[in-house]
Amino acid sequence: MLRIAVAATLMLLVSGAHAADTSPITTPEALASYLRGTPIERSPLGALSPGARKRFLATLEFGDRGVRGIDVGDLDQELTHDQAVAVLALFGAQAHGDGLGLSPASYARRQAEGRADAKRRGCVVTRCPESAVEQRYDALVLADRPAPDATRHATIAADYARLFDSELKPTALKGTSAPDLRLLARAARVALEADPDGRAADDLTRVLDVMQSLGMVGDAEFRPLYRARVTTRRFDAARALAQTHPGMKMPALPKLEGETSTTGQPTVLRVSKDGRRMHREAIALDVPLRIVVVAACHFSEDAARAIAADPRLDALFHQHAVWLAAEGTYPADAAAWNRAFPTQPIDVAWRDREWSMLDSWAMPTYYVFRHGREVARWSGWLGLDALRAELTKAGVPY
Predict the structure, then answer these.
(1) What is the pLDDT of residues 316-333, one digit of tens each?
(2) CATH 3.40.30.10 segments of the chain
């Protein structure tokens, strides 16, 4: 599964498989026909609030074989598991609903929050207009940003600052409705994913503190903050957060050892197999041959497993390759990889921006460098024969 960092929402790639008892919706035209012919109260989509339904439908991605991309963030935030699966089944994607949706208690709480907000605003809960906060949230997550990752992330951070500056001032949070608080937290998570160094971490801390004081969230909701502290290498702050919110149940961070001279080269966080130690290390690209493999997904694991089982490729990659995970990867996950693939260990980018020569973090993507210059790249895992063919085209002996 590809992880697309456009917003802090869940993304699923689906095949368009058929639902058990009806044909799935596979084209925009079929979706339009369904929406025209099905009263909303008779559709699984009717369980979503109007704003969530609009966002869900707007972010559907159709391909030649049906729906290929579904943003399930609103399903996860508003629906029970059964309701979310029913929505996915409209598109033949019900098999991808594992773990999706609210618990019965959380669902009941959010329904009560919606009713209370509607009463305060004097509208019918199923037809309340979007609040100002929700309109701003829409503007943040529905903006079209077709650009390289770095540019897109910078645009998200700028849009977030522009849209939510007034709503996220400490004094403005007092009296904010529960539904709007949840949207503010989601907006901050979107910005945090794009720009972990920016203001969103402090904003999210304030919003979550208010929500926790109202009994709206538990410790687990602080995990995105923990991840941001790890991503920005503020390990002491991450440890303190884990102590303050033990319900996150995060694994202990390894001890950071030693000082490293980067000498102008990109650097990685190298984690021991036992997960107890880590250190920062520079990676030389200005060598006769360096292969960088952006990795960490299960397709990457398939590639590492196959390469490790082939003596010649295992030796080539062990000597010349760097398996590289993005900065947000947890050290514990890197340690688990290194235990599984001892001859093909993975490193974590110290910061992604140090690796500016990599303009895509899609997994797996292979970059071949000679004396610091990129000479070839390709993406995906199609087996050893395809890998050998690409290596041959790149002039890499094995």
Answers:
(1) 999 999 999 999 999 999
(2) 258-393
Give 64: exposed, middle or buried? Use CB within 10 Å, 0-12, 13-18, 19+: exposed
Q: Residue with structure tokens 């969530």?
A: 52
| Token digits of residue 361 | 């973090």
Encoded amino acid at 56, one letter: F
- Determine the Cα–Cα distance for residues 111 and 125; give it in Å rounded to an integer: 9
| Strand ranges across the sheet with 11-13 | 11-13, 66-71, 61-63
Which stretch of DSSP H or E encloses residue 298? Answer: helix 298-309
For the chain, where are the E strands, in sequence order?
A: 11-13, 61-63, 66-71, 255-256, 267-271, 277-282, 290-294, 321-325, 346-349, 365-370, 373-379
pLDDT tens string 234-283: 999 999 999 999 999 998 999 999 866 667 899 999 999 999 999 999 99
**Mean pLDDT (whole number) for 71-83:** 96
Kindly report the CATH number that applies to the domain delimited by 258-393: 3.40.30.10
Termini Cα distance of the chain: 29
Asked if residue 49 lies in contact with residue 78, where contact means CB atoms within 8 angstroms, the answer is: yes
Average pLDDT over residues 147-170: 88
Q: In what order do the strands lie in the sheet with 321-325?
A: 255-256, 277-282, 267-271, 346-349, 321-325, 290-294, 365-370, 373-379
Task: State yes or no: pLDDT of 202 exceeds 80.
Answer: yes
CA distance 171 to 210: 11
CA angle 55, 59, 61 (to 5 degrees): 155
